[in-house]
Amino acid sequence: FSFSFSLPLKVHSLMWLLLLALVTAVAGHTEHKAGGLDYTVVVVDRDPVPQGAALVSRVNGSSAFNFSFTSAWLPATQSTPEGLVVRVVECNPDHHPCPGARHPEWSNAGALAVVRANLSGAVPRTDFVSYDAVLWPGTAAPPRANASRWGAADPRVTYRPHTGTFYLTWDNCTQNCYPVRHTLLSTTRNPFDPAAWTLHGPVLAGVYTGGASLLFRDDAGGPPHFAFVSDSDTAHVVLLAESSDGLHWALAANASRRVFMAGRQGYWDAAGVAAGPQPERLSTGDYLYLYNVDTGYPYHPNPVGRCAVGWAILDRHDPTRILARATTPLLTATLPWEQCPHPGYACQETMVVFATGLKPLGNDEFFVFYSGADTDVGVARIRVQTVSSEGN
């Protein structure tokens, strides 16, 4: 597969600005009463890993890489074990020289590693993240070079029981993901077999995209299926795409629905939003959707840090409709290994918590898998709570 797509620079046209102005009132609406319910999401366990450690980190001996961060959850099936897809980076040449890097050609953007995990016990654990775990889902690795060429970034996975298929979205990035970043789609029935992946190309061809999470509607009458797609390498808006087969996607046919979510003036997420992991069903039938904010690079002091995680509740009948949305961030960089006051060999980015993985645990509880300081994989346990608002 050739990575020679035609792509505009990361500049948003007047058309997008006008469209954003049209739909911001809807996309940014916050309502906690939904169908007679008040929704809230709480953190049950900020760090279930012993001693306040990260889930995956070179420091605790669980990764061969200096930086292992954004991750997606792989559910166990009858033929494959549970696992994670982890973005790994050897060395960041933006911060320091990388003379010992084994793969300079992807040292800046990174690669994807697939590892087995046991995330059902009292203490979540993963296998060691090694160089042997690196794969390029449906394509060849970038050619060997002494300088950064391109790499793989920010995986998100949706498993589709209807077809027994894993759908992986990941970003093909040049240096610093600029001027080129494409969100690509790869599929497989066995994510641990490098030869079993098929690359289908960009989720949205000809559009600068920075990650996508998918929602299949097989259990709700079928298509359209939905993709929630970031349009920036930091945060701006989340676009809505639709598909009838899960492989071919296009922006929503109704132009007024193409911006699914935007930042809200006067709120903690005013700087813009980015796609989180796949939406997951709740006991009410509605969906939990996590999203991210990015206040900008390079980091400047901000009450929520550089990146933080929020939540929204999507309507069971129309998941493009937001029923409730966080008025304060769910997760911010509070643990030492998430804060990175001095980026360099030890950590990449200051004050970052960025979620791309979500595992249902039952009873409306979930594990959230996130990047801490773009350096380690973190996990937090959350719970969605509802209270009847009838008669209030």
Gist of the model:
This protein is mainly beta and 392 residues long.
List keywords for this structure.
five-stranded antiparallel beta sheet; disordered N terminus; 2 helices; mainly beta; 5% helix; 392 residues
Compressed to H and E, one letter per element, the order equals HEEEEEEEEEEEEEEEEEEEEEHEEE
The counted number of beta strands is 24
Low-confidence stretches: 1-31
What is the mean pLDDT? 89
Categorize the overall geometry. Answer: globular
SSE blueprint:
Elements: H1 14-27, E1 33-34, E2 37-45, E3 67-74, E4 83-89, E5 111-118, E6 125-126, E7 134-135, E8 151-160, E9 165-173, E10 181-188, E11 198-202, E12 212-215, E13 225-230, E14 237-243, E15 250-251, E16 259-262, E17 273-275, E18 280-281, E19 287-294, E20 307-314, E21 322-325, H2 336-339, E22 353-362, E23 365-372, E24 376-388
Antiparallel strand pairs: 1-2, 2-24, 3-4, 4-5, 5-6, 5-7, 8-9, 9-10, 10-11, 12-13, 13-14, 14-15, 14-16, 17-19, 18-19, 19-20, 20-21, 22-23, 23-24
Task: Kindly describe this structure.
- With 392 residues, the protein is mostly beta strands.
- It has helices spanning 14-27, 336-339; strands at 33-34, 37-45, 67-74, 83-89, 111-118, 125-126, 134-135, 151-160, 165-173, 181-188, 198-202, 212-215, 225-230, 237-243, 250-251, 259-262, 273-275, 280-281, 287-294, 307-314, 322-325, 353-362, 365-372, 376-388.
- The strands form five sheets. A five-stranded antiparallel β-sheet has the order 1-2-24-23-22. Strands 3, 4, 5, 6 and 7 form a five-stranded antiparallel β-sheet that branches.
- β9 (165-173) and β10 (181-188) form a beta hairpin.
- It is globular and about 65 Å long.
